[in-house]
Amino acid sequence: MSNLPTLSDAKIELNAGVATLTFMRHDVRNALTGTNLINDIIDTLNWVNQAKDDVSVLIMTGDGSAFSAGGNIKDMQDRGGDFAGDVEEVQTRYRQGIQQIPLAMNKCEVPIIAAVNGAAVGAGFDLANMADIRIASRKAKFGETFVNLGIIPGDGGAYFLQRLIGYQKAAELTFTGRIIDANEALEIGVVLEVVEPEQLTIRAHELAAQMAEKPAQALRFTKRLMKMGQRMELPDFLDLCACFQGMCHNSDEHMVAVEKMIAAMKK
């Protein structure tokens, strides 16, 4: 088994191919700035890509009442922490800091499930939207709230939200900065399911387990194809599919899966 990454403000658990990353800064509602959560997330994603034999699915969730409150507003008020300095300093800190999250999330080779336990606002909302699938507690709240603070989604959130729910609805949420509840998030397609709070972890792991049961290499290839399909022209994409398929047909896991399927058909 691959060694688990050493984290500061989050904890990582691994069971039967499912890694669970839990943000552990309830004292600041799991804010991404002003904590070590940015580095913890990036280190976890890099570890997942390397742990090919051990990790098939990643779940992200928060400890306490919030999934993530995004940016630390106290630091904004003080113009300190990640928000200190002149224009050059701030933009450099964004590029070298929080903007590394969407780049790492986009490169993650396994499915990511965001189990949204509470408030996911600002950069916390954007982080959830970078996942492949979102399951929400009925207590969850969502908001693209940057404009309320006189700033823009500096972590790339405007890129992800409109691709998730379409431009018009994304524009309405982004331009108004309003908070929506779990039911509205389900209605507009932000989340896949809404469950009772006590069922959130159970449901997220049920879904993750269904994925983790699949042949590991094929699952990773499929995740990569779905991401690449968003930015490639069809002829190039089909060429890539052919290459990946050739690799799959020559893999041991493919033959094991075929034999398993044939055995099941004979029953």
What would you note in describing this structure?
By secondary structure, the chain is an alpha/beta fold. The chain has 2 domains: 10-212, 2-enoyl-CoA Hydratase, Chain A, domain 1, CATH 3.90.226; 216-266. It has 12 helices and 10 strands. It has helices at 37-50, 73-78, 87-96, 100-107, 123-130, 157-165, 167-176, 182-188, 200-212, 216-228, 234-249, 252-266, and strands at 10-15, 18-23, 57-62, 66-68, 112-116, 119-121, 133-137, 141-143, 179-181, 193-195. Strands 1-2-3-5-7-10 form a 6-stranded mixed beta sheet, sandwiched between helices. Strands 4-6-8-9 form a 4-stranded mixed beta sheet. Strand 1 and strand 2 (18-23) form a beta hairpin. Helix 1 runs parallel beside helix 4. The protein is globular and about 65 Å long. It starts with 9 loop residues before the first strand and ends with a helix. The model has no long low-confidence stretch (mean pLDDT 96).
Question: Which features does this protein show?
Answer:
single chain; 267 residues; alpha/beta; six-stranded mixed β-sheet; four-stranded mixed β-sheet; 16% strand
Kindly state the mean pLDDT as a whole number? 96
What is Rg? 19 Å
CATH class of the largest domain equals: Alpha Beta
How would you sum up the major sheet? 6 strands, mixed
What is the CATH architecture assignment of the largest domain? Alpha-Beta Complex
Strand order of the largest sheet: 1-2-3-5-7-10
DSSP helical segment count: 12
How would you name the CATH homologous superfamily of the largest domain? 2-enoyl-CoA Hydratase, Chain A, domain 1
Going by helix content, strand content and strand pairing, the class is: alpha/beta
Succession of helices and strands:
EEHEEHHHEEHEEHHEHEHHHH
In total, how many domains does the architecture comprise? Answer: 2
**Low-confidence parts, pLDDT < 50 over ≥5 residues?**
none
N-C termini distance = 35 Å
At CATH level 3, the topology of the largest domain is 2-enoyl-CoA Hydratase, Chain A, domain 1
Which bin fits the share of residues in helices?
Answer: 40-55%
Shape: globular
- Report the β-strand fraction as a percent range: 15-25%
Number of β-strand runs: 10
